[in-house]
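Example 9 (inverse folding). The structure is encoded as follows.
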């Protein structure tokens, strides 16, 4: 049986570790002391569909040893430092699965481990800690693992072993396009950090949606130029999402039931980063769009302005000035964007 390591088990990693353990897969978790304390009595997992399981105590990685599969679940901003610590756990046959948001962080892993199989993983859902040891998946979607001609059989076997109602898993050979489609949805992360409210509440307010729609238009201009066909990962095709976001509130609530079918407590990872005075993933999300756009002579003024605002909020958090959690109303943000 393969042995799995969850390296950097935070919210997503702890949920994943609990799911693997519940399926009887040999799994160890490597995490910060604060998270380890939360997990020491076992993990309870739940999701938006009211599925609930409780695992026995999870196993922690006490000493470096080689693993068959490593799930790298740190943030994009921590991948470089994580790679420096990863070597004792990696053999020549270790499969490394990169579970980061955004674009490009897997290149760092490939630079450190050029002879290993490095695959990307798309995590479509949010996870929140309801209490110590209880991790809740607040939205739908399949955890998706990259596959190619060389690893199709092994990846299929692994997915069959992992897949469950609490963690639906699938595979794709079109990961690059899928990550662009996920990035389109992740553009709301930055607005959620600036709004300082649950995602559901944010989406119910049209001014916030208008800004997200404008950022999505800029992304779609880039993907069209690059001839990337975005796969459909929501109830709506990628090109329709900005149009629906721009609808008046009463029509949006009527037509976008699935978009609003998220747990009312869910906030994005970028909000958590800012709230905890950590560097956000903005450069790998909105920043990746701007970087790609520049290569084709395109401009992304809305994404650039939002990056500027998030970095301002980051600095305020680092300086200890955000104790009252400053936020932007939808009207404030819309006014700022309209001035571009």
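The amino acid assigned to each position is listed next.
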């Amino acid at each position: 049986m393969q042995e799995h390591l969850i390296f950097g088990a935070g919210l997503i990693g702890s949920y994943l570790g609990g799911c693997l353990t519940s399926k009887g897969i040999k799994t160890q978790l490597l995490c910060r002391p604060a998270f380890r304390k939360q997990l020491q009595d076992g993990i309870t997992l739940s999701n938006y569909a009211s599925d609930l399981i409780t695992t026995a105590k999870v196993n922690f990685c006490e000493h470096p040893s080689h693993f068959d599969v490593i799930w790298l679940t740190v943030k994009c901003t921590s991948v470089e430092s994580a790679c420096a610590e990863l070597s004792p756990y990696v053999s020549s046959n270790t499969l490394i699965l990169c579970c980061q948001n955004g674009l490009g962080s897997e290149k760092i892993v490939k630079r450190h481990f050029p002879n290993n199989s490095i695959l990307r993983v798309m995590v479509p859902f949010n996870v929140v800690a309801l209490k110590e040891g209880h991790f809740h998946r607040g939205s739908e979607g399949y955890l998706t693992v990259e596959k190619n001609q060389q690893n199709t059989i092994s990846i299929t076997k692994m997915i069959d072993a992992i897949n469950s109602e609490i963690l639906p898993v699938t595979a794709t050979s079109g990961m690059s396009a899928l990550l662009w489609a996920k990035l389109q949805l992740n553009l709301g992360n930055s607005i959620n950090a600036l709004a300082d409210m649950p995602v559901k509440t944010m989406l119910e307010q049209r001014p916030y949606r208008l800004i997200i729609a404008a950022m999505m238009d800029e992304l779609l201009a880039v993907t069209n130029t690059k001839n990337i066909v975005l796969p459909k990962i929501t109830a709506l095709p990628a090109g329709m999402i900005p149009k629906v976001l721009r609808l008046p509130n009463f029509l949006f609530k009527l037509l976008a039931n699935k978009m609003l079918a998220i747990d009312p407590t869910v906030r994005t990872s970028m909000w958590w980063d800012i709230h905890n005075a950590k560097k956000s993933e903005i450069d790998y999300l909105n920043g990746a769009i701007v970087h790609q756009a520049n290569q084709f002579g395109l401009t992304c003024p809305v994404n650039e302005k939002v990056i500027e605002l998030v970095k301002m909020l980051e600095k305020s958090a680092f300086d200890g000035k955000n104790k009252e959690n400053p936020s932007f109303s939808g009207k404030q943000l819309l006014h700022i964007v309209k001035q571009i």
